[in-house]
Amino acid sequence: MLRSLLATLLILGAAPALAQPRPDPDWPCAQRKVSTLGPGAVWTGPDPTQALAEWGNDTDAALLAQKIASRRLPLEEVDGLLDGFAGKLDKAEKDARLTRVFAGVFEVLNGERDKVVAGIGRYARGQRVMAERIRDEAGRISEVKTAPDVPETKELAELEARFNWDKRIFQERSQSLTYVCEVPTLLEQRLGAIAKKIQERL
Prior knowledge:
Elements: H1 2-13, H2 49-54, H3 59-69, H4 78-86, H5 91-146, H6 154-180, H7 183-199
Helix pairs in contact: 1-5, 3-4, 3-5, 5-6, 5-7
Keywords: Signal
Signal peptide: 1-19
């Protein structure tokens, strides 16, 4: 029984999220941590500095940006919405206003990504605390079982029940973390795809 407990703890300690040393101990994902993105990572169009400051003041651009940034909207529907917006613009204002749309999409998706990255760090810290608690529980179970002349007791049953429950929660959270770790990449991919679509219309 003791061997199986130790084996379980080794498995927990080697969860995929914590498999390799990372520069940031609170970053559990296999993907390299990039705390925040810059527009230049996905945008090669006009300088977006001014657009980033004023896109919220352009009501139509802001509404479009928020709509196409939403992951609920399939990417294939973005083209039609961009064409509808661009088709109403004068040539003189086209680049500036489409750049504002990009700025809005960037701000929305990058903001969402920042929150996800911060949440992953909190999640990992919680997992580390739980792993330590599970190790402590396993150690206590071992002490009770190896004590001389101590039969199976209510205390041991309670310890094992708590250990099994915490282990189950830890493992379920580790599996969820695998999916959560993919979210920043999915957001980056959506941002890059939309940026490309906007640039094609400049």
